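Re: folding output
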Amino acid sequence: MRAITTNDACPVPIWATSSRRKRVLRLLLTLCALTALFATATPADAMDTAHAADAPTQAAYLADRLRENPVHVTDQLPREIPRSTAPDLARIAKKTGVPTYVLVLPMQSSTDGGQLLGAVHDRLGRDGLFVLFGGPDIAEARAFGVRAPADAALTVTRCELPYDAGPLRSFERFADVIAQGDEKATARAEAARETYRDDEAADMYIGPSDRRNQSFLTGILLTGVPLTILLLAAFAGRGRPKKPVLRRSVWGAALLSAAAVALTATVVFDQTRSSAARPPTPADLSARVERVAAGLKQDPVYADPESPRVLDARQLDRLHERIRDFRRSDGGGPVYVSLVPQTPASESAGDSGLFAAAVHAKVGRDGVYVVADPDDGTIDVYNHGLRLDGNRLSFDVPDSVTLGDSRADEADDHLLGERLDALMTFLDDTPRTDRPWSEPAPPAAPSAADETALPPLFSTDFWPGLVVGAFAALLLSSVVAGATWIVRAVRRRSPAPEPSGRLPLTAPTEPSVSYLRRIAYAELTALTAGFTDPEDRYRAWDHLDAALLLVDGDPGRVRQPGTDAATLVAVIVLARAGRAALAGETADLCCGVNPLHGPAARRHHVRVSAEGNSRRLLPVCPPCGDSAVAEPRGIPGRLLKLPDPSLGNTRLPYYDVTDGPLTAVPQGIARLIDKVRETTGVH
C-alpha cells in the first residue's frame, strides 16, 4: 500500500485512520457526482464551449504565427501570393537592417491596418518593423522601437511601381528604401511624389486581350506591309517597261519586310505572363481547405482566425445550440459553418460552392455547409447529403439572410450572428424529403498557371490578322470611301425608337454623345408626332413640356453641339415615358441602374460599387432585378456611366456626374419633371 508524507515528513498509510478514510470516501463521492453531471452534456457541447473560450483574437493569432516565423503568408491567396513565397519574403526582409515582421493577409474593408499592426506588436512583445500586405500590395508598415523610415518607403513603393508590380518586387523596393536610412529615404520619397504627381507608373504586365491585340496587329502587318509594297510597286510601274532586276528587288523588299515584321514582333511583344503572381503548388492550393476542414471536425463553427471576429461569445453559443437542435430534429443533421473570406485569389477563385464542396470532401461527413464571408457579409448555403428540399435551399433563402440589408451593410459584423440565427430558423422550417439531396458537382476552378500564362504571339487572333492585312492592302481605298459614305449616311439618318422590351439588351453603359444625340432626337420627334388626339395633352403633356424645357423648346437643339450628355439622357427618359403614357402603359419608374433601359418594375437594394459594400435602393428593370439577385456583383458593370466634364474622359455613374434633373431618375418620372421645372425656373 502506497504511503503519503505528512508535514512532519513521516510516512503514514493512506487508510491508517478512520477519519481520513471518511474524508477520502466523501472526496470520491464528490468526484463521482461531478463525473455524472458532466456526463449529461454531450462531447460536442464540451468541445464547443472549449473552442469558444480558447478562440484567439485576430491579433493574438497573428502574433503567435510571427512568433513561430517572422514572415506569415496566408493560405487564402494562393493565386496571387502563395505560401511558398514566404522564404523569398524572408530573404528580402533581411535587407532592411532591422528586425522585420511580415504579414500577408486578404484585403479586408473593415480592418484598419495600422491598428492591427499595433495590436499584433503588443501581443508579440517584440520591437521591429511590421509590414502588412493586403493581398499583393503593401497596405501598411509601422516601426516599433526601431528607426526605420516606413512612411517614406511606402510612398516610394506606391509611386515608383505600378499596381501590378507584384508582392516580391514591391517588397524589394520597400526594403531597399528602408536600408537607405531616414534622410535618403525622405528625399527619395519627395522626388517620387514630384515625378509621379500627374502620371502613374506604366503597367508591367499585359492581359490576354492585350495579347490578342498584339497577335492581330502582327498578322495585319505581316501580310499588309509586303502586299502594300507589291501593289504600290505595280501601280508605280504601270505603263513602263518591265525590268527583271527591278521586279526581283521589289519581291526581295517585300520578303525582307515580312521577316522584319516577324522578328520585330517577337522582340517587342515578348511578354509571356499576365501577372507577377507565381504559379501555386498543389500544397498551396489545398492548405486553406485542409485548415478549415480540420477545424470543422473539431467544431461545427469555424471562424477564420486571420479575420476580425464577427460573432461574440453569446452569438457563438446561440449558434452552437441551434446547430445541436437541428441535428437532433426529425430529418435534420449536421450543419457546418465556415466564417471564411471568399476572394478571387483563393483556391476556389471566390466560388463559395466550390469551396463548400472541397471542404465537404475533406471533412467526409454529410450535412448542410454554410459559407459566411466575414468581409462582405454574404451567406451561401449548400446541402450535401441531408433529406432537405434542395430547391428551397437554392432559391428561397431570403435576401435579408444571404445578402443582408442596409443595416447589415453599415454594421462592422454585417449582423452575421442575427442572420445566421435566421438561417437556422429557415433550415428548421425547410421541408424534409424521402431521400438525401446533394448539390451537383461544381465546375473546377480555372487553373492558376493558365490564368497568368499568355497565349503564344502567333496564335489566337494572328490568323484573322493575316486575312485582314491582305484585305487592307487590296481594298484600302474602297474601305475608306465606303466607311466615309456610311458615316455620313448614319449622321443624316435618325433611327426609329426601339421597343421598350429590347432596351435593356441594346442600351450601352458608356454611350457616346453622338449616340445620345441621335436617340434623343428620334425619341423627341416620335413623342411630338404622337400627339394626334386632343386627349393626349392630358396623358403626356407634362413629359413633352419638360423635355422641351431642357432644349429651350427646340427639338433640333439635341442634334447640335453644346448639350451635355446628362441633359440628353434626361430628354430620352422623358420622351420615352411620354410615349408610354400616350400608349396607355404604366411608366412611373425608370430603371435607376441605367435609365436607358426604359421602364422599371420594382425597387431593389443593389450593389453600386465593385469595391466595398456600397448599396442603393434603386428602381430596376426586370433584367437588372434578376442580376441584383443572381449576380449582385455584376450590377456595378451595368450602371450608366457618363463623361465627367471636370475630369476629362473619365466616366462616372450618371448620378455622380451632375446635380441636374437626371439625379431625380431614381425617385420616379414625376419627380424628374418637377426637377426639370425647378432647374429651369418654370412653375
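--- second protein (sequence, then structure) ---
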Amino acid sequence: MKKISSFVMISIIFATSCKDKKEEMKAEIQPPIAKIVPNSLEKHGDIRIDNYFWLNQREDKEVTDYLNKENEYYEKMTAHTKELQDDLFKEMKARIKEDDTSVPYFYNGYYYITRFEKGKDYPIYARKKGSLDAKEEIMFDCNELAKGQAYFNLNGLSVSEDNKWVTFGVDLVSRRQYIIQIKNLETGEILPELIENTTGGTTWASDNKTFFYTKKDPKTLRSDMIYKHVLKTDVKQDELVYHEKDDTFYSFVYKEKSKKYIVIGSTSTLTSEYQFLEADNPNGKFRIFQKRTRGLEYSISHFGDSFYIVTNKDNATNFKLMKTIESSTAKENWVEVIPHREDVLLEGVDIFKDYLVVEERSNGLNRIQVRPWSGEGAYYLPFESETYTAYTTTNPDFDTNILRYAYQSMTTPSSVIDFNMKTKEKTVLKEQEVLGGKFDKNNYTEERIWATASDGTKVPISMVYRKGMKKDGSNPFLLYAYGSYGASMDPYFSTTRLSLLDRGFIYAIAHIRGGEDLGRKWYEDGKLLKKKNTFTDFIDCSKYVIAKKYTSSKHLYAEGGSAGGLLMGAIVNMAPELYNGVIAQVPFVDVVTTMLDDTIPLTTGEYDEWGNPNEKEYYDYMKSYSPYDNVVAQNYPNMYVSTGLHDSQVQYWEPAKWVAKLRVTKTDKNLLFLHTNMDAGHGGASGRFEALKEVAKEFSFLLDLENIKK
C-alpha cells in the first residue's frame, strides 16, 4: 500500500472539515414554513382542503414577506455557488456578440433594422430609406426608454403606409398589458394619446390616420375587444368595432400581406372565425369570412382575387389548403389546392407572385416546399442534418423570387438565408456568431433516438453532447420538454447551453405527446382526457435514456416551464426516483383550482385544452394528475422552482403554494428552492443580460448537484 504523506493527509482532513462545516451551516439555515390557513373548496360533492389558498393575495404584505423569505433562503443556501453563478454569467455573456445587428428587411420603401450596442441590455429599432447606405433613422432606443424601470418591454411596432407614424406598446409591469402610444417619425414627437390595457399591436388603415387595436378584459386579461382610433382624437371616443363575448375565444386584428384587407380574427383551441374589411374603407362594416362552426379551424391569406385557406375542414386532421374567390368566402365555396395527408402536417403557407411556399412537418421534422404557380417542378429545400429546425421568416413582398428562411440545429448556430426560388441558389445573410474563440461545431454530436412509450408509441428525443461521450451511465443529462397546446419543441441551437455541454452534460428535448411534433394526432393524444400521455411519455423517455446508459437516475435532471412546469410537477409525483434534480419554471401546478376560477387569465379559453372541471368527468381527471393536489409523503428530487410576481399566464401563487405544501409533506432532505422575481412576469427579466443571470442560477443548481465547481 502506498504511504500517504502527512501534507496530503492534512489536506484531506482540511477538505473534509470544510465540507462538514458547509453541511453544518446549511443545516442551520431553516426554510420558511408558510402558515396553514385551511380553506375548503367544494365541487361535485368533493371537498379539497387548500391550506395555502391565502397566498393568492398579491398586495398582502404577509404574502410578499413570505416570498421574500423564500428568496432569502435560496440566497443563503446557494451562497457557495455565487462565484460559479458569476463565472457562468460572464462566460455566457462573453459568447454573445454585444454589438449585434439583425438582417435588414425591406418594406414599403425602407430597410428596417434591430441592433444592440455593447454593454446595453435593450434593442435599438432603426430604419434607412431606400438604401442600406442611407442615413440611419433611430425609431426607438429602448435603453433610453427603460432607464429607471425594473422591467421594460416595447412591443408591436406598426408603421403607417405613408411612413410618417409609428404606434408602439410599452409594458412596465410584465403583465402583458401594454399602453399604446403614437410617434411622429418626421418630428420625433410622441402624441399625448395613451391607450391602456391592450395587446400592444395596432393595424393601420390606408388613410394613415385610422388604426385598429385590441383591448383586454382588465381582470381575466382576455383580448376580447377591437377598437378603432383616429389620430389626434380623444381615446375615450374610440369606437368599439367588435366585442368577442364568448369567453372561450380571444380576438386580434391584422392586415393581409396584400394590404387590401384588414382582418379581425377570433379563435379558441378548436374553432376559428374571421371578418374582413377593405383597408381603404376603415369606417365600413366588417364581413364574416366563414362563421364559426364548432371544431372548424381555418386561417386565411389573400392573393390576387382569392383567399387561400389552411383548414381542417372535412376531418382533415393534419390540415389541407383550399382556395376561394374573395366575393364568395363561405366554406361551401372552398376548393382543394393541397389535399389532406395522414403523415404530413400542413403548418402554413407563404404566397408570392410566382410561387406558393408550403411549410410542413413530416416524421417530426420541418420541411419547406416551393410550388411554382405554373405547375412546373415543385421541390423541397434540402436539409441534411438528422435533427434541425427550419422556417420561413420575414417575406413582406409578393413580387420577388427570393424566399427568406432560417435554419439551425442543436450543433449549428442559427442562420438567416435568402433562397432564390428560380435558380435554387442560396445566400447565407447571417450566421449567429459564438464569440470567445472556443466554439467549434465539430466538437459536438447531435442525434435523434426513439423511446418506446408504455402503450407502444415511439417518441423521438433530440440530443446533443460533446464528442467522445461514453454510454456508461455516468453522464449528467438534462431532459427538457413542454408537451401542451400543440406547441412543437423543435431542436434549436443555444449559446448558453454550451456551458452545460462543455462541462460534460448531455442535453435533450423529448418530443412528447401534447405537442404537434408528429402531427395533429400527436397533440390530440396529449390533451383533455388523454393528458396523462404527456407525463408517461416523458417518464418513458427518461427510463429509455437510463436503460441505454446515456445516464442514470443519479445524474438525470428534468426541466420544463409553464405548461412544461405542469409536466415537471406531474413526473415528480409519479416517478420521483428517476431524477436527481428538477427545474420547474413558472409552473402551472394547481390545475383544478385555476381551471375552476374563471376570473383568472386564460382559464375559460383553455377548456378545450384541459377540459372544463365544472363537468365532473374533467374535474375527476384533472384532480388525478394536478401536481398540487397530488403531493404525497414521499421522497422528491432536488428542486429549483422559479416564478414572477406579476406573471399574467401562470399566477405566482401556484408555484408558491406548491413549494409550501412540498416543504411540510416530503420525506427527504433534498434541496427545495422557490425563487420569485419580484419585478417580472411570465417571461422573466426583460434585459438580455439580466435574463442570463436567471439561466446562471439554473445551471449552477445543476452543476452544484453534480459537484462541478468550475
